Amino acid sequence: MERKICASITSILALLLILKISAATPVLTGSQNNTYVFGRDSDVFSINITEANLNTSSVMHHIRVYETGSTWFNTTPACFSLSASEWLCNNTVTGFGSLASDGKVFIYFYDAYDSSGNYGSSGNYFVTIDRSLPMIRFVKPLNAGYVGGLVNMTIEAADSYSGVNSSTVKYSLDNSAWVSTNLVGGYYNASWDASSLTNNQSVTIYANASDKLGNTNSTYINVLIDNEAPKVFIVLPTPSQVLSGTASLKAEVTDQYSGGDNSSVTFSVGDASGSFNCAGTQTLNCTASFVSSNAADGSRTIYFFAKDKAGNSAQNSTTVAVDNLPPSITIINPQRNSMQRGTVRVNATVVDAGVGTNTVTYKWESSSKTGSWTDMSCTGSAASYICTADWSTSALSDGNYVIKVNATDSLSHSSESSVSFLLDNSGSATTSVSGSGSGSQTTVAAGATITTSTPQTVSQTVSDALKKIFNVVILPEYLKERPQLIVLIIAIVAITVLVVLFLVELKNTRTIKFS
Q1: Do 404 and 451 sit in the same domain of this protein?
Q2: What letter does residue 226 receive in the DSSP assignment?
Q3: What CATH number corresponds to the domain at position 41?
Q4: 225 near 173, Cβ under 8 Å?
Q5: How do residues 335-365 score in pLDDT, each as one tens digit?
Q6: pLDDT, mean of residues 244-259
Q7: How far separated are the first and last CA of the chain, in Å rounded?
Q8: Which of 354, 399, 344 is nearest to 376 (CA)?
Q9: pTM score, two decimals?
Q10: How many domains does the chain have?
C-alpha cells in the first residue's frame, strides 16, 4: 500500500515538473531596432509583450553605450494591458541626454517574467543618436543675384544620420505659401514665374527641410528681378561685307539691370558656330574669330546670341557674302577632240557663288605658239555668266591646239579650264565618187553630205573614212613633229576610201544624188 502511495506522489510531482518546464515564456518584440532617437531624457522606448500571466513588476529595460566597458542603465517601464495576453510597456531613461552625443550608438534590450517565473527576453536592439539639423542650401539662384521670367531653382539638402525626409523640402516666396519640390538626381528642383514682377524688385526665397527624425532646418536668399532682355549690337561684320579666310566678329551686349552674361555670347553661320570672348559688366565688349571656309560660299546670315545674368536671352543678325572658292568654268565649245576651222566660237559658262566673277579671258596654245589672254563677252549675272568670243584661225597652221579659259572673282580667286582639239583650215581632205552608168566622177570635199536610198549609204561610208583620218591625226602624240609621215598616212587612207567608194558604186544600180 505504501509503495502505491509513493508511486502516486512521484507521478504527480513528475507531472507538475513537466507542466512547469513546458509552460510558455513571455514573448517580447520591439519595433525600434536600427532606428534613430534624439538622445534626450524624454526619448520614449517601448516593447510589446505577449503573456497572459505577465509579472509587470519584473519587466526591465537595459541600455548602455555600445562601447566596451560601458555601464548598463536599468529602468522599470510602465506596462498597459492591450488584451488578455498582450501588453505595451513604455519608459524613458533618466540622464539619457547627458550620455548621448550626435552619432553615438546605444544597445538595449527588455526582459520579463510571468507569474510562474518563466523568463523571456527581447534580444538586442540598436539606436543611433541624431541631434544634428539637416543641411540645406540654394544651388541656384545665387544670393543677391538677378532672376527673371521662369525662375528655375535647385536646392540641396542632406543629413548625415537619419536622412532627409524628401516630402519636407519646400520653398516659400516672401514667407507666403510653402510649395513642394521635386527630387531629381540628388537635388530638389522647383520653378516659379517672375515675369509679372517689377524690374529691380527684391524677393526673399525661403527653403525648409527636415530629417526623418524631425530635426528641421531652413535657409533663405534675396534675389532681384530682371525681366528685360539684353540688347545685342553687331560691330563686325558690317552688312553685306565679304568674308574670306578667317574673319573678325565683334559685338556689344548691354543690359541695365543684371548685366550681360560673359559666357553666353555665341554666334552661328549655317552649321558653323562659336563663342565670343567678352569683357565688362553692364556692357560687354565681345570678340571672336570665324573661319569662313566652314560655311559654304554665297550669301549667309550670321546670328549673334546673348543672355543677361538673369537668363533673359536676345539675338541679332546680319547678312554677309562668304567667298573662299574661285569661279567654276565649263567650256561648251570647242568640244574636246573636235575638228575646228575658220572662225571658232569659244563658249563657256562661269559660276561663282561668292562675290561673283569679275573677269573672264581666253587664249589659244599650240605646240609651238601661244596666243595672248583676250577678254570674253559675258551675259547674265556675276554669279552665273555665259561667255563667248570669236577666235579667227585663218592665219594659223593646221594641227593640235588647246583653248584655255580663265575666270577671276572680285577677291582675285581664279580658276582655269582647257580643252584640246584639231584645227583644219586647209580643207585637203577630199575624195572622188563615180556615178552609176555615166562614167563621170564627182569630187566630194571633207564635210560634204552624200545621200542615197540604199541601206549602206555613200555618205555613211565617207563619214566612217573621215573619222578614221581624224583619229589617226589627233590621237598619236608622236606624229605632231613628223609632218611627212602624216602626209603619207593621209594618202594611204585616201586611196583606201577611193577603193571603198568604187566597190559601193558597183553595187548600186540606182543613180546617186549629191546635195
Answers
A1: no
A2: -
A3: 2.60.40.1220
A4: no
A5: 999 999 999 999 999 999 888 899 999 999 9
A6: 96
A7: 168
A8: 344
A9: 0.61
A10: 5
Report the length, in residues, of the chain: 515
Taking only the tens place, the pLDDT of each residue in 151-188 is: 999 999 999 999 999 999 999 999 999 999 999 999 99
Print burial letters for 192-209: b (CB count within 10 Å at least 16), e (below 16): eebeebeeeeebebbbbb
Select from 322, 343, 374 the last residue of a domain: 322
Report the share of the chain in percent with pLDDT over 70. 81
C-alpha cell at 410: 572680285
Map residue 420 onto helix, strand or coil: strand
- Name the domain boundary from 390, 406, 423: 423
The amino acid occupying position 27 is V
Is residue 468 scored above 80 in pLDDT?
Answer: no
| Residues contacting 112, CB < 8 A, separation 6+ | 26, 28, 49, 51, 54, 55, 58, 59, 60, 119, 120
Q: Which domain holds residue 218?
A: 135-225
- In sign, the C-alpha dihedral spanning 254, 255, 259, 261 is negative
Q: Verify cis geometry, omega within 30 degrees of 0, for the bond prior to 141.
A: yes
Does 492 have pLDDT greater than 80?
yes
Q: Are 246 and 287 in contact (CB under 8 A)?
A: no
In a domain, 14, yes or no: no
Distance CA(381)–CA(378), nearest Å, equals 9
Q: Is the pLDDT of residue 82 over 90?
A: yes
Give the per-residue pLDDT at 116. Answer: 96
Is residue 235 domain-resident? Answer: yes
Angle, CA of 231, 236 and 241, to the nearest 5°: 130
Rounded-to-integer distance, Cα 28 and Cα 53, Å: 14
pLDDT of residue 428: 55
Residue 8 lies in a domain: no
Q: Are strands 242-243 and 313-322 parallel, antiparallel or unpaired?
A: parallel
Q: Which three cell numbers stand for residue 272?
A: 558653323
